[in-house]
Design goal:
Number of helices: 8
Shape: globular
Radius of gyration: 17 Å
CATH architecture: 3-Layer(aba) Sandwich
CATH topology: Rossmann fold
Order of helices and strands: EHEHEEHEHEEHEHEHEH
Strand content: 15-25%
Length: 251
Amino acid sequence: MDINVSEDALALGKLSGQKAGDLIRASLEDKGAAVIILATGTSQFNTLAQLVIEPGIDWRKVTMFHLDEYMGVPDTHPASFRKYLKERFVSKVPIGKYYLIDGEGDGETECARLSDLISQNPVDVALVGIGENGHLAFNDPPADFETNTPYIVVDLDQMCRQQQLGEGWFKSLEEVPRQAISMSIRQIMKSKNIICSVPDERKANAVRNSLEEDVSNMFPASILQQHPRCFLFLDRQSASKISEEKSNRLP
């Protein structure tokens, strides 16, 4: 795992967005196309802002898949991740193809639709984050490390739902959905490259656990330790609880 620690979230986003741009350009040069996964949430604000201004990317040759979405939330709701990606990415670049998750209908049917599509499109670059509870996408602990199904319906735990409230997406905890559609752990790990952006002190425990605990479904993002091309971008706050021994080995 390649770990980069920036002074603040803005610098983190710039570097992670530039890295994503580099990897997308490399894929376009190598095979004339690229398939990417985009995450949402506050951790991705600066990364996406940088990515959409990256030069030299022929977005018409890029296909984008969506990492996760709430069940039962319309795309007009402030918390909708479809709304987020339309506003922060799709409207900014001439993307060739994009597949957003519709969580308003039957979850299993939507999972089957997306699973079929992504199975035909090997992923070159996945942009992800880590939740306060250590989740990867909406795979809360104990995460399913075994399923090979690309998209699954998952239950959201209390800590995850509290995070969504704390980030300002909902007015009350009761409004936060209890289920979501999420890309599975194994599908994320199939990506050729993974860029994981994690700003903010509230993620510090999750970062420490993901790096220093043994790989376990109780620390879902710890699975990234096993990916051969994972690039982790932290700021000083999110890296603040990494042990001194580990910190001494960081750039």
